[in-house]
């Protein structure tokens, strides 16, 4: 731990106030999501604990009927907005992390194959990537989500909605990983250590996984950090449009969609607090990604 703190990356982090603040914000939000069942004042999705008389309670003001006080107010069902944000944050982070992990796995695998094998394998993979890049990622995700949900049996659609969402976002985001890994692999495969591995009889799979992969991961980590913010925003966009997380497992995007319906009737807090949470999360992750990209760029040292 001490060695990492004294490294060039640790020094760069200590002298980047924006990165420090961003990491603190991300850590707080992740811990709040993980510990949501323990720190949430109420279980907002347990009908037995809801009281419709608490509906539309203003933040930090006693309810006119029950006298209860809620930090961030309540929605039309009497659900505590603070508790819904904590549970919604869990869904958004889970979808974001899993979608990026899936995109990384697919993109790194295809990038290694394209860069190392070349020929018709490289041509096919890169042409598919070029075609996908001609469409906005959110439209690709919507198309994949619609197809995947359509072939899912109706009785399992709500249960599988989160996994279908992860699959759709991940499949729409693999291209940038594949392109970066392919370029780095094409450089690394001509190095002496790769030639030495071939001479001693290493298989192409072993060379790619044990020799080339560790040397192409630095840019992948930067892309993964930035892609996490984009995946969270993509999930929120799909859920806001009503084609993402189901009502039984609402994410921040679902909460924003619900709050938008009450904005013009004066219940601003139902929309504002989930939106601010999403903004803080996406902005902090993005700023961390920007710092990591600069810190790992040898030209800026």
Automatic annotation (TrEMBL):
Tell me which Gene3D superfamilies the record gives: MetI-like
The ABC transmembrane type-1 domain is annotated at 89-289
By its UniProt entry, which InterPro entries does this protein fall under?
Answer: BP-dependent_transpt_permease, MetI-like, MetI-like_sf, OppC_N
| TM regions (residue ranges) | 20-40, 91-117, 129-148, 160-181, 212-234, 268-292
Topology in the lipid bilayer is annotated as:
Multi-pass membrane protein
Q: Which family does it belong to?
A: Belongs to the binding-protein-dependent transport system permease family.
PANTHER family in the record, alphabetically?
Answer: ABC TRANSPORTER PERMEASE PROTEIN, OLIGOPEPTIDE TRANSPORT SYSTEM PERMEASE PROTEIN APPC
Keywords carried by this UniProt record: Cell membrane, Membrane, Transmembrane, Transmembrane helix, Transport
Q: Which GO terms describe its cellular component?
A: plasma membrane
Q: Name one GO biological process term.
A: transmembrane transport
Q: Which CDD domains match?
A: TM_PBP2
- Say which species the protein is native to: Meridianimarinicoccus roseus
The name on file for this protein is: ABC transporter permease
In the UniProt record, the signal sequence range is none
User: In which compartments does the protein localize?
Assistant: Cell membrane
């Amino acid at each position: 731990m001490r060695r990492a703190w004294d490294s060039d990356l640790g020094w760069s982090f200590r002298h980047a106030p924006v990165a420090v603040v961003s990491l603190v914000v991300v850590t707080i939000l992740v811990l709040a999501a993980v510990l949501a069942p323990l720190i949430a004042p109420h279980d907002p999705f347990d009908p037995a604990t809801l009281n419709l008389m608490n509906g539309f309670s203003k933040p930090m003001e006693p309810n006119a009927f029950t006298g209860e006080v809620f930090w961030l107010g309540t929605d039309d069902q009497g659900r505590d907005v603070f508790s819904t944000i904590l549970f919604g944050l869990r869904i958004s982070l889970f979808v974001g992390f899993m979608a990026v992990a899936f995109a990384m796995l697919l993109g790194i695998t295809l990038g290694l194959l394209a860069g190392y094998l070349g020929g018709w394998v490289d041509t096919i993979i890169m042409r598919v990537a070029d075609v996908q890049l001609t469409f906005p990622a959110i439209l690709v995700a919507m198309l994949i989500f619609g197809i995947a949900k359509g072939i899912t049996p109706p009785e399992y659609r709500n249960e599988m909605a989160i996994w279908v969402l992860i699959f759709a976002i991940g499949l729409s985001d693999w291209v940038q990983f594949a392109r970066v890994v392919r370029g780095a692999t094409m450089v690394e495969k001509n190095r002496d250590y790769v030639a030495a591995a071939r001479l001693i009889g290493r298989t192409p799979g072993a060379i790619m996984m044990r020799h080339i992969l560790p040397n192409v991961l630095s840019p992948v980590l930067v892309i993964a950090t930035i892609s996490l913010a984009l995946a969270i925003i993509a999930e929120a966009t799909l859920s806001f449009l009503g084609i993402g997380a189901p009502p039984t497992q609402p994410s921040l995007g679902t909460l924003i969609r619900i709050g938008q319906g009450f904005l013009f009737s004066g219940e601003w807090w139902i929309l504002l607090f989930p939106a601010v949470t999403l903004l803080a999360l996406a902005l902090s992750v993005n700023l961390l990604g920007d710092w990591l990209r600069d810190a790992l760029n040898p030209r800026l040292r």
